[in-house]
From TrEMBL:
Top-level taxonomy: Eukaryota, Viridiplantae, Chlorophyta, core chlorophytes, Trebouxiophyceae
Residue positions binding heme: C425
Pfam hit, one: p450
Name this protein carries in UniProt: Cytochrome P450
Species of provenance: Elliptochloris bilobata
Names of the cofactor(s): heme
Keyword tags: Heme, Iron, Metal-binding, Monooxygenase, Oxidoreductase
InterPro entries: Cyt_P450, Cyt_P450_CS, Cyt_P450_E_grp-I, Cyt_P450_sf, Cytochrome_P450_monoxygenase
GO molecular function, one term: oxidoreductase activity, acting on paired donors, with incorporation or reduction of molecular oxygen
Family assignment from sequence similarity: Belongs to the cytochrome P450 family.
Region of interest (Disordered), residue spans: 371-408
Length: 485
């Protein structure tokens, strides 16, 4: 109630605020307390909440970046496929009559991918879809902990010591501690293996190799725990909920489902009566899944897993933004869901139109009247026959920006689900491959239909909630109908 905030939905201004050149920090009041309460018992900052100018943030970001390099992710591709196939086998075993929580199933798959690629640990989450096993308990601890983070975001008085007299606050603290124990157990398991071997390219290995130049030693557990906690959280939550939202939307649009099936069939990745077992997916297939990629982007636009976006803090001297004077210390809130559904930015913003992404430049924003007539072009895609894909910046010899001084090469984006600038998502490459592979495998083997208990579209929409990430309150219950049947 004491916070001054400016909500930003204009892509030009968002680009200006999030750019490296702006050098604006994340506001402590929003990011520091709630998320750090979850990721470790020490409540230390993590990769998400460190100050950008801090030596520790630069050390960790630079240290783990090689784990997400293209060559490394490509090397791990067969593992991602195998884990996805394991889930497909589990769903076949359930049968079409069974009601399966596909959001939770996707979380299990993401947990196994993160376990192997991220930590070199076999969690075994896709060996079963039952909730009482150890992976299921860990996922439940994560979900409940995220719910408590959301409560803290709206009521930061919950962290005050005196408030623990209230049972609800005590229960919330216990939920945070359950997740912290999951993180501590994982860290102990990593430590027990000893120093990582030379060819270990997991995220954990890169973390453990980081040397603090001030001490000449590796990072202590109190600094490693929050990094592992945030990587675990981000690796499971974002990819899994994205998969669930795609399955929900595809189940309600048979014409989209048919186009995806045709694309997969053309690549030999669709199960049919004549080909009940699709061929093994290859890394090169990812670039050929063009329509599926459009569907995924459109789902992420309508239901961004981090809908509240990101924020920066105005400097102590204040600033000017878009012609307005911003008071010192005000929060500059780049609200993803509002930007992604703004009628000033998108044509028919509330409609599910995967075809809008057929334009290779669809993610970029070009405000009306900002370009010369020869360079101007609408934000909506042209008919396929008229498209002329651009491999570089839109021609603009004069340059343009919100204040007229940004070079043409700095093209603002209207679609930034992984954020932008220096604080963009370091794990984007792994997340993208994970959800694209899993969706190709799922939609290549099954047609998904909402279970009756979801209450149709109205029931699903009513169940969508915020627990620090956008998700379904009680999961996404569906029937998995084999394509080859």
């Amino acid at each position: 109630m004491w916070l001054k905030a400016v909500v930003i939905t204009d892509p030009m201004l968002a680009h200006q605020v999030l750019s490296r050149e702006a050098g604006l920090e994340k506001p402590h009041s929003r990011y520091k307390s709630p998320m750090d309460l979850l990721t470790s018992a020490s409540h230390r900052s993590s990769l998400v909440t460190h100050d950008t100018n801090s030596a520790l943030w630069r050390l960790v970001r630079k240290g783990i970046a090689p784990a997400f390099a293209t060559n490394n992710i490509k090397k791990e591709f067969p593992r991602v496929v195998e884990i996805g196939q394991q889930l497909v086998r589990q769903l076949h075993a359930c049968g079409p009559e069974a009601v399966v929580d596909m959001d939770l199933a996707a979380q299990r798959e993401s947990l196994d991918v993160l376990g192997l690629v991220g930590f070199g640990v076999q969690f075994g989450a896709t060996r079963s879809l039952l909730g009482g096993d150890k992976p299921g308990s860990a996922l439940r601890a994560l979900q409940n902990g995220m719910a408590e983070v959301q409560r803290h975001m709206g009521a930061q008085w919950r962290r005050w010591q005196v408030m623990r007299v209230f049972p609800d606050v005590r229960r919330g603290r216990e939920e945070l501690q359950r997740y912290q124990r999951v993180v501590e157990d994982l860290l102990a398991q990593l430590r027990a293996r000893g120093p990582p071997v030379k060819d270990d390219t997991t995220i954990a290995a890169h973390l453990l190799r980081i040397v603090d130049p001030a001490t000449g030693r590796g990072l202590p557990d109190e600094l490693l725990a929050p990094e592992i906690g945030i990587l675990y959280l981000a690796g499971v939550e974002t990819s899994a909920h994205t998969v669930a939202f795609v399955l929900y939307l595809v189940s309600q649009h048979p014409e989209v489902e048919a186009k995806i099936a045709a694309e997969l069939d053309g690549l030999g990745l669709l199960a049919t009566a004549r080909r009940p077992r699709p061929r093994l997916m290859a890394y090169e297939d990812l670039a050929q899944l063009r329509y599926l990629s459009c569907v995924i982007k459109e789902a992420m636009r309508l239901y961004p897993v981090v809908p509240m976006g990101t924020a920066r803090q105005a400097p102590d001297t204040g600033m000017e933004l878009g012609g307005y004077a911003i008071p010192p210390g005000a929060m500059l809130w780049v609200f993803f869901s509002a930007m992604f559904r703004s009628p000033h930015v998108w044509d028919a913003p509330d409609e599910f139109r995967p075809e809008r992404w057929a334009d290779v430049d669809a993610e970029f924003y070009i405000p009306a009247g900002s370009l010369p007539a020869s360079a101007a072009r609408p934000n909506t895609p042209e008919p396929a026959a008229q498209q002329t894909p651009s491999k570089g910046p839109v021609p603009n010899p004069e340059g343009w920006s919100a204040d007229g001084d940004a070079p043409a090469s700095c093209r603002p984006k209207r679609f930034i689900p992984f954020s932008s600038g220096a604080r963009d998502c370091v794990g984007r490459s792994l997340a993208t491959i994970n959800y694209k592979v899993l969706l190709a495998l799922l939609l290549g083997n099954f047609r998904f239909r909402l279970a009756e208990e979801m209450g149709g579209v109205e029931g699903v929409e009513a169940s969508i909630c915020m627990r620090a990430t956008l998700q379904f309150r009680d999961g996404l219950k569906m029937h998995c109908l084999p394509c080859a049947a």
